[in-house]
Specification:
Blueprint lengths: L1 E7 L5 H10 L7 E8 L3 H13 L1 H4 L12 H30 L4 E7 L3 H12 L3 E6 L3 H5 L4 H8 L4 E5 L9
Parallel strand pairs: 1-2, 1-4, 2-3, 4-5
Helix pairs in contact: 2-4, 5-7
């Protein structure tokens, strides 16, 4: 089995799934795709937003050492937000896996709140991956400065890393 990890910035579209399958159509071994879908850490986002509004005094010094803890309402709101973010990321993952499987390919995947390249490093070791595809929107400045996900992955992995730009699904003509 030839294991290919696919890190996507947004949901894997039908054209992108088709392009991936075509890209690996001539391999002598069967290909298994491992999809990684990043999602936001809602707790960190809520605290960052509130600290920006309230100032660093409110959330910069939290915990028992400082005698301040964010109100339970903040934690409940963050938990609710995280459940919604996780549900959407899980649904996007399942739709992407379904698209790959519709082309008779083996596929599995994960969602992650961690930095996507850190997750990629761990997953490539876990599945003994032979190649990585990073699928993103164009990020001209990040690519120019070599700080985009594909450049970061190349620095951390000992496998080929291919960077593809996402294709926009065609919209029906009016």
């Amino acid at each position: 089995m030839y294991d290919v990890l696919v890190l996507v910035e947004e949901e894997l579209s039908v054209p992108d799934a088709e392009r991936l399958v075509e890209l690996y159509a001539g391999t002598p071994q069967p290909v298994r795709f491992h999809l990684i879908v990043p999602c936001e850490d809602a707790q960190a986002q809520v605290e960052a937003s509130l600290s920006g509004i309230a100032g660093s005094d409110m959330f910069g010094m939290t915990g028992p050492r400082y005698g301040f803890r964010p109100p339970d309402d903040v934690h409940r709101a963050a938990d609710e937000a995280q459940r919604a973010v996780d549900a959407e990321a899980t649904a996007a993952l399942e739709r992407g896996l379904g698209r790959l499987r519709s082309f008779d390919r083996e596929a599995d995947g994960v969602i992650t709140r961690r930095h996507p390249v850190d997750e990629l490093v761990d997953q490539i070791k876990r599945v003994h991956g032979q190649e990585v595809v990073v699928l993103t929107r164009p990020h001209v400045i990040a690519e120019l400065l070599h700080v985009d996900w594909s450049a970061q992955a190349r620095r951390h992995l000992g496998v080929p890393v291919l960077h593809l730009l996402e294709q926009q699904p065609e919209e029906p003509a009016p």
